[in-house]
Amino acid sequence: MAHRCYIIPPHLLKAISESSHNSDAIRQSARAALISHETHSAKRRLHLEAVVQSRRASRAPPPTSPFVPSSVLRSLSQSEHVDEEARARAAKDLEHALYLEARAKEGIEAAQPDADASKSTTKRSVYDAEHTSSEGKLPGKLVRAEGNKAVTDKNVNEAYDNVGTVLQFYKDKFKWISIDNKNSDVISSVHFGDMYENAFWDTEERQMVFGDGGEFLGNFVGSIDVIGHELTHAVTEHTSPLNYQGQPGALNEHVSDVFGIMIKQKVQNETAASADWLIGEDCILPGVKGVALRSMKAPGTAYNDPRFGKDPQVDNMKNYTPTFEDNGGVHIFSGIPNKAFYLASKAFGGYSWEKAGQIWWKTMRSGQVSENSTFLQFADVTVDVAKKEFGADAAKTVRKAWDDVGEYSCQSSPQTAGKPDTPKHNDIRLRYQLSLPTLRSLSTIDKAPDRRKVLEIACHAAEFRSFPIKQDQKNLFREINDHTGIPYPISGLVTESWQKVFLLIQIDLSRGGWPNKISANGRKELMRESGRIYVVLDRVLRCLADIFGEREDGRGVTVTLDVLRSVKAKVWEGTELELLQVEGIGAAKMKRLTDAGIKTIKQLAGLEFYHIERLLSRNPPFGHQMLTQLSGFPLLHMQLSVISEYMPAQRDGKQDKGTCPLQQSWITRVLLGYSNDALPTWCKRNPWATLVIEGDDGRLLWFWRGSVKRMETTKIMFVRLDAKKGENVKATFACEGIVGTLIRTTLAV
Question: Where is the segment annotated Disordered (predicted)?
């Protein structure tokens, strides 16, 4: 039995089957269609899981011969002597086994982009199903093949032409060929069933299937957005397969709606501002109180008919309620990302495929959308892609679109909900493309926090809620918390997303290695998640540093930059682990050095090459090579001195109101530089440095950030510091992302 994705959602079929305004025959037909839908949706989920499994297997370099032969798996999948669950598992394993056998037989890499290099064109063919309801008889009788002239059957011609339009759109706008980028043929069958009121992409048979429609719904072959929607399900399988359940399933539906609507707008030459944003507009037959199957502009308003019920789609996360129906509401909650795409497209202006469409397409091609992606995680990737492709302003536009559908603004905790945000803080949030709940959470941090508090509050960012602790990860994070000696263990149960991030960062920075409490596949998945976590954490910590700066909390800025530096270097600041930043030094070599009293990179750089070779038991030219590398490690220096008291301007004999009567202002000379023989270069980059000057009560007196290039001939600044006479002013100077460069000095005013 094939796996189907239907254009008519189950909630609509259910409403028709239960409405007393419909005849018994109509209700019975809808009920039968609903049962069929539920049965095959379950099978679709299994198919998508198999696709994901095949994708993962395709990353392995050598062809693999499965131990259990496919004939055994095929027998199990069809046997009446095992239960349904066992048959389903065998069917999934069979698909994977056949995939592996085919790869081994062909002797090629499954990941090779042009596996079928001899195929240069995509061929369309349209069949007449002759009203059969049996999938075993599909595709039916061939009526029109690629290159043939039009026939007398209007449905055949419309299916042929509209499939061609969809394929041409993908080729022209996204450089994508057919459904798999390999020129696969596209088969369509029309006249399926008796007055069958639906259309679907059969993911197993790899073909489109169209019913003729009935009293309420029809004209499926004539609806270009319907065909675009269904063929996009096939494209999704070959870009970022999304499981057909819950939020990933809603994203799966959303992506199909996005490309379906863009194709419709292209055919009708409509801009984002002038389009109606209706999906399935041509499927609603006269007499129905409605305009379409879905509205991306205003989800929940497409129809309201006593025979259909009211459109149940929602357009905001505040209305998101988990459900078991419709595979977790995949057709209902897709309205939330649908509206976000509409808002982004309208904000960009022009045609929807020019910017918003490119962002969504490159998101699906980015490799960052996992099969279990949540709305929040998907939104983050779209923002990152927007910034990369079109710049910071585009990223803000996309972020605002997601904000407006509540994906971020409606996820705040009770402790932070309703907390006012200053305009300056909101500007900071937009600068780093973070959510409103994250801003509110960061704004709750107390003055002059310690390192643990900074890391903990950063890990509470709403963006990390898309990284839950999965079932197979529980033992790993309990082991990290209880038995690895991390500096900040958690008391109580480890169950929340922020705890996962908090522990993962600590074990990485401690360089202890992950405990062996997770499978190989689970470890690979966690490593992929880890990469995205570090990207988000960098933005969150920078945002937090700016918030402290706006508050004039110097101690908060200093500690946050200390944590950020450690996170970027992946070793804790102030520990002997800083030696691990040097290429060629691992745990064993670090121990040899520390046993010899060499605990910092500066100390190591001060050794002669032959001492390095002796301590690490290496032969020449190892010592010379290491010293060459270490010559680029920034050796910073700093001097502060008070020049004179600052005398504010007098206005009509009165003191300038900007001067605080409890403090004096001092003109201070700040000298910044490095003692390297050449411009410092670390990890093939010229690093940036930060200077923080704070009073003895932790208030921020001065902040500077710049590239070490600006210190080539020593940078001299004259700054005004507001401090009491006799106060001890503290200055901290360090390179971003490099542990061990930190220097501190105290100036008595």
Answer: 109-135
State residue 649's pLDDT score.
54
pTM > 0.85: yes or no: no
| Matching fold, domains 423-569 and 634-749 | no
Q: List the structure tokens of 416.
A: 């932070």
Burial class (CB in 10 A: 0-12, 13-18, 19+), 13: buried
Other C-beta atoms closer than 10 Å to the C-beta of 667 total 14
DSSP string for residues in 672-736: EEE--SS---BTTB--EEEEEEE-TTSBEEEEEEEEGGGGTT-EEEEEEEEE-TT-EEEEEEEET
How far from the centroid of its chain's Cα atoms is residue 689's Cα? 30
Distance CA 732, CA 519 (A): 44
Instruction: Cite the beta strand spans of 33-148 per DSSP E.
Output: 124-128, 141-145
Specify the residue for token string 């397409």: 361
Please say whether the beta carbons of 673 and 714 come within 8 A: yes
* Cis omega (within 30 of 0) for bond into 423: no
Residue 508 has a CB neighbour count (10 Å cut-off) of 18
Question: Beta 664-674 vs 636-645: how paired, if at all?
Answer: antiparallel
- The three-point CA angle 441-447-450 to 5° equals 90
pLDDT on residue 334: 94
Burial of 656 (C-beta count, 10 Å sphere; 0-12/13-18/19+)? exposed
Q: Are strands 124-128 and 186-192 parallel, antiparallel or unpaired?
A: parallel
pLDDT digits (tens, 9 = 90+) for 287-345: 778 888 899 999 999 988 776 678 889 999 988 887 777 778 888 999 999 999 999 99
CB 146 within 8 A of CB 123: yes
Q: At what angle do helices 423-431 and 392-404 cross, to 10 degrees?
A: 120
Token pair belonging to 461: 């960012």
Max distance between CA atoms of the chain, in angstroms, equals 102
- Do residues 471 and 521 touch, judged by C-beta distance below 8 A? no
Check 158, 197, 230, 281 and give the catalytic one.
230
Q: Are 511 and 580 in contact (CB under 8 A)?
A: yes
Q: Residue 139 and residue 208: Cα distance in Å, rounded?
A: 9
Q: Is 725 exposed, middle or buried (0-12, 13-18, 19+ CB in 10 A)?
A: exposed
Taking only Cα atoms into account, the Rg of the chain, rounded to an integer number of angstroms, comes to 31
Catalytic residue among 191, 233, 254, 331: 331
**Cβ distance 557 to 428 under 8 Å?**
no
The domain defined by 423-569 folds into: Sec63 N-terminal domain-like fold (1.10.3380)
- Of residues 608, 570, 571, 576, the one with CA closest to residue 595: 576
Give me the pLDDT at residue 320, please.
Answer: 87
Domain definitions of the chain by residue range:
4-106, 423-569, 634-749
Residues (pLDDT < 50) of the chain are 1-3, 44, 52, 55-73, 75-76, 81-82, 86, 89-90, 93, 96-97, 99-118, 410-421, 651-661
Specify the CATH number of the domain 634-749: 2.60.40.150
User: Counting beta carbons within 10 angstroms of the beta carbon of residue 701, is it exposed (0 to 12), middle (13 to 18) or buried (19 or more)?
Assistant: buried
Q: Where are the alpha helices (DSSP H) in 349-435?
A: 356-364, 375-390, 392-404, 423-431
Q: Residue 87 has what pLDDT?
A: 59
Cross-strand bridge partners of residue 98: none
Q: Are 144 and 157 contacting, i.e. CB atoms less than 8 angstroms apart?
A: yes
Q: What is the pLDDT of residue 674?
A: 94
Phi, psi of 345 (to 5 degrees): -60, -45
For residue 354, the surrounding DSSP H or E stretch is: none
**Beta carbons within 8 Å of 75's beta carbon, 6+ residues apart:** none
